[in-house]
């Protein structure tokens, strides 16, 4: 049996980024992927032969600083530079100009309190910074369920403050998932090969899979922290307690998407616009109307609501969206909507959630999760990415950084 220089576990954005860099460094690499497809949480589908839609990442966040923007263009993908109108969704939902101004003030004040807490350096739940009784608390919390996959009462304020966002958000017309898949072209990847055990007692590291054992001098683990915390891969000897605590401190929040086809044209819906299900409930959806001008609505649910809707099933998720959209556009409109696709990331066994957040007191866990062990067990993935955590480009960059660390350790 040949011994690889490096075995990478996971062919998501992080694993693919790392494999590309290690190929450049001419290291003998193998990528072992549990699923029968590439991309992990980057996943484009084309339901019933229709338009490509992303069940996972869609936006090139911080697109002006995002390395995947350049790669998308280089690979011939269409980068759509139209900025989202998230700032206008309140007005579109029916708020008056005065209400909208009041919201902007409340939101800016909250962000200022977050920045002040970050300067102070003590960590606690971001919900502690909500002004008691403020009319906009529910909306601030709902936005957290979409952005972080969790309500503010479970979110570390320090970690939240560390997220970097240039404010430039673009999209890949053909699908972000397709782009990540394309970036894997030519790489040595074995699909349908889940790693169950990593034995790192000997001179080489042994990885057990249902189709046999793979040996490598170094291993790069890119699986989500949920899976490390649940010990879906058994390590012999076990991972140090600091690593396990970091994995537990960075659970995946939940965000789910639902795509509804519009029966007939809907010129009354401005293309590529966003609207809120409600400004008064935390348990509400965000709705993207006619993305790319296509006859569909993309709904976004986060946190406890997403968890509930997933548990109730795709029919209940679609009904919830129809009810909220009926409230906005009338019941005749809602009858024209047909479910075409939806995600269920909480029950996806190879993710168990959507993107990582830090629990209060765990903002420094990202560094601990990323730290190598014995110069031959390395870690990457969005949860390890400083600043750009929870994103595809953060995952990709963390893969590049880990690959550099592997290559440096080899020399
Ligand atoms: C609904 C949703 C919306 C999102 N929107 C955006 C967005 O607009 N913009 C953005 O930048 N990001 C977004 N994200 C986040 C982005 O998709 C992720 O941060 C990124 O794709 C994570 O990449 P990764 O490589 O770290 O992890 P993953 O993509 O999860 O890759 C890890 C891989 O490891 C595999 N694996 C797990 N266990 C094993 C095992 N034992 N053996 C072998 N393989 C294993 C998994 O199957 C997976 O393929 C979104 C995510 C979701 C779910």
Beta-strand segment tally: 20
Major sheet attributes: 8 strands, mixed
Number of helices: 14
Structural category: alpha/beta
N- and C-termini, Cα separation:
23 Å
Instruction: Write the CATH homologous superfamily of the largest domain.
Output: FAD/NAD(P)-binding domain
Oligomer: single chain
* Number of domain modules: 3
Helix % is 25-40%
**Rg calculated over all Cα atoms:** 22 Å
Mean pLDDT: 97
Structure description:
The structure is a single chain. This protein has 14 helices and 20 strands. It is an alpha/beta fold and 411 residues long. It folds into three domains: 159 residues, FAD/NAD(P)-binding domain; 113 residues; 77 residues, no CATH class. A hairpin with a 5-residue loop joins strand 9 and strand 10. The protein is globular and about 65 Å long. It starts with a strand and ends with a helix. Flavin-adenine dinucleotide binds next to helix 1, strand 14 and helix 14.
Topology:
Elements: E1 3-9, H1 13-24, E2 29-32, E3 44-45, E4 53-54, E5 59-60, H2 67-74, E6 79-80, H3 89-92, H4 97-120, H5 137-147, H6 157-162, E7 170-172, H7 176-183, E8 189-190, E9 197-199, E10 205-209, E11 212-221, H8 225-229, E12 234-236, H9 241-249, E13 252-253, E14 255-262, E15 273-276, E16 286-289, E17 296-302, H10 303-312, H11 314-329, H12 331-334, E18 337-342, E19 355-356, H13 365-370, E20 377-379, H14 392-410
Parallel strand pairs: 1-2, 1-11, 2-8, 9-12, 11-20
Antiparallel strand pairs: 3-4, 5-7, 6-7, 9-10, 10-11, 13-19, 14-17, 14-18, 15-16, 16-17
Bound molecules: flavin-adenine dinucleotide.
Residues 9-15, 32-35, 40-42, 56-59, 61, 194-195, 222-224, 227, 232-233, 255, 257, 343, 345, 350-351, 354-355, 381-382, 390-393, 395 line the site of flavin-adenine dinucleotide.
